[in-house]
């Protein structure tokens, strides 16, 4: 194709907000390490809440009352949604989403964008679901801070998973632009 | 650092031994052997990087580091490193292990992993001084 790489490409749906993000060479490595660290941090935050719930103590000052709430399967669902969304997002070929033709047909771009949408919808659904679990299961029942921690851990797990996916995406697409500029 | 000689090897082996000593003490002093998982985690941490490093990069473009397997190895490596630090904290938060055991196993794990990093940094120079 002889269409020049301009800032305004009429075939584009999503504009890349960082078109000329030419960072140093090691930024990609740092970004990927950062994404992996955030990923582990997210999951360990939630596992901390789950382990803490399994070894839960009675409320402070009342040693005879059993713990009123535990981490159940409903708490695991938003994290699983976010993990699936992250998997879907990272399985997509990023050049295909960017809409540069030259390989594949135009419908492949459409399908790639559909899968990208499904992935981001799963991640956003996970985040929204974690907030819903926090409010419906913990805040509305007026538990003490000892137990609402489970809900906050769930929310922070999903936020960190989303941050990890974003960092991974940016650090992987930055370098392709960089390499592209180099190879010209 | 290119002149890394036998003194470096001896120093690093001492640091490695001290790291393992800390981890084993953190298990044995409280007779709760769960922190030994930290040693296993940190020993396994550089493994994905080492395995996947040979999957990319031996193409004609030597400086191109944008292949998927290498990224996957780095991702898994940093995940495992954060796991090594997070596991004792989680165990100590739930009062399965004592806070002292948590601190000792974290310090020991950091020493072990730092030894591995320093070893690879010190002895990598010889075979790759052309780039």
TrEMBL record, chain A:
Keyword Disulfide bond recorded: no
Subcellular location: Membrane
GO cellular component, one term: membrane
Membrane protein topology class: Multi-pass membrane protein
Presence of the UniProt keyword Transmembrane in the record: yes
Superkingdom of the organism of origin: Eukaryota
Coiled-coil regions listed in the entry: none
Keywords tagged on the record: Membrane, Transmembrane, Transmembrane helix
Segments crossing the lipid bilayer: 30-56, 76-93, 114-140, 152-170
The family this protein is said to belong to: Belongs to the UPF0220 family.
Name of the protein: Uncharacterized protein
UniProtKB/TrEMBL annotation, chain B:
A single Gene Ontology CC term: Vps55/Vps68 complex
PROSITE patterns listed in its UniProt record: PROKAR_LIPOPROTEIN
Source organism per UniProt: Cristinia sonorae
Name of the featured protein: Vacuolar protein sorting 55 protein
Membrane-spanning intervals of the chain: 6-26, 33-52, 72-91, 103-122
Biological processes annotated in GO: late endosome to vacuole transport via multivesicular body sorting pathway
The family this protein is said to belong to: Belongs to the OB-RGRP/VPS55 family.
Origin: domain of life: Eukaryota
């Amino acid at each position: 194709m002889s269409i020049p790489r301009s800032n305004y490409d009429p075939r584009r749906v999503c504009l890349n907000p960082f078109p000329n993000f030419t960072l140093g060479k090691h930024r990609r490595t740092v970004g990927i390490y950062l994404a992996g660290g955030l990923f582990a941090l997210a999951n360990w935050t939630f596992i901390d809440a789950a382990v803490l719930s399994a070894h839960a103590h009675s409320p402070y000052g009342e040693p005879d009352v059993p713990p009123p709430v535990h981490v159940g399967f409903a708490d695991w669902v938003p994290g699983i949604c976010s993990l699936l969304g992250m998997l879907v997002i990272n399985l997509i070929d990023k050049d295909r989403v960017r809409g540069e033709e030259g390989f594949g047909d135009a419908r492949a771009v459409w399908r790639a964008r559909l899968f990208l949408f499904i992935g981001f919808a799963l991640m956003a659904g996970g985040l929204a679901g974690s907030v819903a679990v926090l409010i419906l299961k913990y805040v509305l029942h007026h538990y003490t801070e000892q137990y609402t921690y489970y809900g906050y851990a769930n929310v922070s797990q999903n936020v960190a998973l989303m941050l990890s996916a974003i960092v991974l995406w940016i650090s992987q697409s930055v370098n392709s632009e960089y390499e592209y500029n180099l190879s010209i | 650092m290119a002149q890394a000689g036998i003194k470096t090897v001896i120093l690093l082996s001492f640091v490695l031994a001290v790291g393992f000593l800390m981890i084993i003490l953190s298990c044995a002093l409280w007779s709760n052997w769960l922190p030994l998982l930290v040693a296993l985690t940190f020993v396994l941490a550089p493994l994905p990087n080492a395995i996947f490093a040979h999957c990319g990069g031996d193409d004609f473009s030597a400086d191109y580091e944008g292949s998927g397997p290498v990224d996957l190895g780095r991702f898994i490596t940093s995940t495992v490193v954060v796991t090594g630090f997070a596991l004792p904290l989680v165990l100590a938060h739930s009062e399965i292990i004592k806070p002292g055991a948590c601190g000792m196993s974290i310090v020991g794990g950091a020493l072990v992993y730092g030894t591995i990093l320093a070893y690879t940094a010190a002895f990598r120079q010889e075979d790759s001084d052309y780039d």
